[in-house]
């Protein structure tokens, strides 16, 4: 599966509709401080079903909507769209082309769409479950998190590796069973 394109429209600093097309190989996004690099990554996280406002550096979910600037009025809606090439069938029982949309309005109302059809958050979460993508996955490591890993004590680092390897869940279950 490949990420073909990401479109931001009214999301955080992206007041204008902005489409990023990913070419084969590695993509780097560069720009001065505050130019919106992290916002792009957050948009990706958000469209994949992120529910934690903290990890999106906001207080409440509608904070992801463009809040206005000196020259522009705030917007009432944010939209992020990703286009995926699933021709290798990585996402099981899904068509070769997938377009996933997430929208939110100022009143907090939000919607998800898969190939223009309205779906519930659950369906987005299920779509990416056990793929290493989606929310709470380690495929996106945010700014600050890298330092946190480098600066952590060996034991903390081990916990992190166990989390990534997916063994933490079993360790917790074992611990619970031993206590009973
Ligand atoms: P750095 O190199 O420092 O990490 P960056 O390129 O990652 O910078 P971001 O953190 O993505 O920059 O962008 C921060 C900018 O986005 C700030 O100027 C902030 O005001 C703006 N911003 C964040 N949320 C909104 C919003 N809801 N509406 C308008 N602007 C926003
Ligand atoms: Mg940043």
UniProtKB/TrEMBL annotation:
Binding site for ATP: 32-39
Top-level lineage group: Bacteria
Name of the encoding gene: smc
Full protein: residues contained: 1 to 180 of 1182
Function: Required for chromosome condensation and partitioning.
Quaternary assembly: Homodimer.
Record comment regarding domains: Contains large globular domains required for ATP hydrolysis at each terminus and a third globular domain forming a flexible hinge near the middle of the molecule. These domains are separated by coiled-coil structures.
Membership in a protein family: Belongs to the SMC family.
Localization per record: Cytoplasm
Entry protein name: Chromosome partition protein Smc
């Amino acid at each position: 599966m490949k990420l073909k394109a990401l479109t931001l429209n009214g999301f955080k600093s992206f007041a204008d509709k902005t489409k990023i097309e990913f070419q084969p190989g590695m993509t780097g996004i560069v720009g001065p401080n505050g130019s919106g690099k992290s916002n792009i990554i957050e948009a990706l996280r958000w469209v994949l079903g992120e529910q934690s406002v903290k990890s999106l550096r906001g207080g409440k979910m509608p904070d992801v909507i463009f809040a206005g600037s000196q020259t522009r009025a705030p917007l009432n809606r944010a939209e992020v769209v990703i286009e995926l090439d699933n021709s290798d069938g990585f996402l099981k029982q899904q068509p070769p082309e997938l377009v996933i949309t997430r929208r939110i309005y100022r009143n907090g109302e939000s919607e998800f769409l898969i190939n223009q059809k309205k779906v519930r958050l659950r369906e987005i979460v299920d779509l990416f479950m056990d793929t290493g993508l989606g929310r709470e996955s380690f495929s996106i490591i945010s700014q600050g998190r890298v330092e946190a890993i480098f600066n952590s004590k060996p034991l903390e680092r081990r916990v992190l590796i166990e989390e990534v390897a997916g063994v933490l869940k079993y360790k917790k279950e074992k611990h619970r069973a031993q206590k009973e």
